[in-house]
Each structure stands twice: as C-alpha cells, then as structure tokens.
Write a sequence for this structure.
C-alpha cells in the first residue's frame, strides 16, 4: 500500500496537531520534523484548513491549531481529502461469457478478473483506514514507543 | 474533601433474567429480534456452564448496558489456543462511557486466567463502529484472511 506524498504529509501533520490539542504549531516546524518541503506542506495545511481540521493562527508565531475531533476523525477522512483509494479499472466492463472458448481468455476477461482482485484489496484498505481514528493512531504511536 | 466515586457499572456473567434486555440491545443494533438465538447463546455460554466460554453483561442498577460473548478455542485455524470475541454490544445511549472497554477487559481477564495471551475477533469490514472500537482497544489485523463463495445450487 502506498499513499501519495501529499496524503502522507497530511496524515503526519494532523497527528502532530492532534497530539497537541489547543497548541499552535508552525508549518516550518512540522516540515523540519518530517523532512517535508515547507512549500509543499503549506499547500497541504491549507487544504486541511479548508476541510475544517485545522485553523490558521495569524500574527507573530502564527501557524495552525487542530480543530477536529481526534476520536471521530479517521485516517480515511484525511486520505479522502487528497486521493481516492481505488485501483484503476482497466477493463471497466464485465466480460461477457464466452461459451465457445472456455480455455482461452480475452484481454477484456483478464482485465476484468485483475480488476476484481484489485477492487478487493481496495475495499480492505478502505475498511482499515475507516476504522482507525486519529486517537487510535496516537495510542499506537505511544504503544510502539514502549 | 474529594470523595471516591464508586463505579456503578458491574460486569458479571449473564443470567436468564438478563436475556430480555440483551435481546433488546441486540435488536436495537442489528434491527432484528432473535430470541431463539439468544436463548441458545445463554445455554451454550451462560454463567458457569463452560469453563472456556464467556457471556458477560455490564449492569448499572439493574439495567443491562451492554454484553460480550467470547470463548477460548484451541488450535482453531491451526493457531495455538486464543480467546475469540464473537459479539459485543452497548446500548446507544450508554456509548462512549467505557462500557465496551470494561466488557472487553473483563473477557480478556477471563481469557488470561485460562492461560491464553491473545484475543481475536472477526467482523464485517463495513461495520465501522465496532471495527473502530476494537482498533481503539489496540487490536490490529490478524494473520488471517476471511474468504467465502456462493455454493452452486
């Protein structure tokens, strides 16, 4: 499973903010911690702000503050802001049954069958991301620290 | 002076008198009343009937707030003995109060007394509510993949 850079930056950021509720943190500090380009992260944080997960704090020492609910917000909620988890369906159409050539397979049938397997993997990935809240992720971080 | 607050919730083995409330909680969650099923569950898992089986309820002043069912199974799927949680349910108006956590802890304690060190469960992947609950309790994906197929008539 591989997520896009934007998505990973968003997950790292919301977890960083959710771990310090009420505190404002600068984009530059998070960019440094996670070795992300500040320019790139700024775009990600703006998107999280537009989605209502963060609020920007203006002025000296400004930055962002977490405004979401860590017990309700899931990884899927964050991921869904940046990418869609679904394998490209190459065939897109269900292959018609071919009685005449039971042993052979048309490209359409092969694409269809591969698409079924990829869709199955997507469903498992989405169910996993939907079931993990930010709060659960923070507990996982704490457990792995021990 | 600070006074210790007594936790009014008690987790104990289910008894026949609890069944009506358990059936209503389950019906509220699943949308289906299953009295025959629950009678069978009480027979098989009820208080003290089987050492390896647990049917627990969380009670608060005579009101059943939730239930959990589990069992230690030996060498299921070729794995060493472990505890399986088959069902857990909490009244919607009692959620987020730690009832589910208490039930899972109690069933886990029962499993530990029987010498097992692993608890597992299996549930529908679209059941985000219960999946999230188990995840919040530290449960991770098990080394299994559930498979199924339609049987030809």
């Amino acid at each position: 499973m591989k997520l896009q850079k934007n998505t990973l930056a968003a997950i790292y950021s919301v977890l960083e903010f959710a771990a310090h509720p009420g505190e404002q943190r600068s984009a530059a500090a998070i960019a440094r911690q996670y070795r992300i380009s500040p320019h790139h992260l700024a775009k990600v944080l703006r998107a999280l702000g537009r989605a209502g997960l963060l609020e920007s704090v203006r002025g000296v020492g400004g930055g962002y503050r977490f405004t979401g609910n860590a017990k309700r917000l899931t990884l899927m909620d964050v991921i869904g802001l940046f990418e869609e988890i679904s394998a490209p369906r190459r065939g897109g159409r269900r292959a018609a049954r071919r009685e005449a050539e039971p042993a052979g397979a048309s490209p359409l049938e092969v694409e269809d069958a591969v698409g079924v397997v990829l869709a199955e993997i997507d469903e498992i990935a989405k169910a996993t991301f939907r079931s993990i809240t930010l709060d659960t992720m923070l507990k996982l971080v704490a457990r792995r620290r021990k | 002076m600070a006074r210790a607050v007594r936790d009014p919730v008690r987790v104990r083995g289910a008894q026949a008198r609890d069944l009506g409330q358990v059936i209503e909680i389950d019906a509220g969650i699943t949308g289906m009343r299953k009295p025959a099923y629950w009678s069978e569950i009480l027979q098989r898992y009820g208080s003290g009937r089987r050492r390896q089986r647990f049917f627990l309820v969380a009670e608060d002043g005579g009101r059943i707030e939730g239930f959990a069912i589990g069992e230690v199974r030996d060498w299921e799927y070729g794995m060493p003995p472990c505890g399986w949680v088959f069902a857990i349910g909490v009244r919607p108006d009692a959620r987020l109060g730690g009832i589910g956590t208490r039930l899972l802890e109690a069933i886990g304690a029962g499993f530990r007394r029987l010498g097992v060190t692993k608890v597992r469960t299996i549930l529908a992947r679209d059941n985000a509510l219960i999946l999230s609950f188990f995840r919040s309790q530290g449960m991770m994906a098990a080394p299994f993949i559930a498979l199924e197929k339609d049987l030809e008539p």
Chain A touches chain B through 14 residues (CB under 8 Å). Chain A has one domain: 5-145.
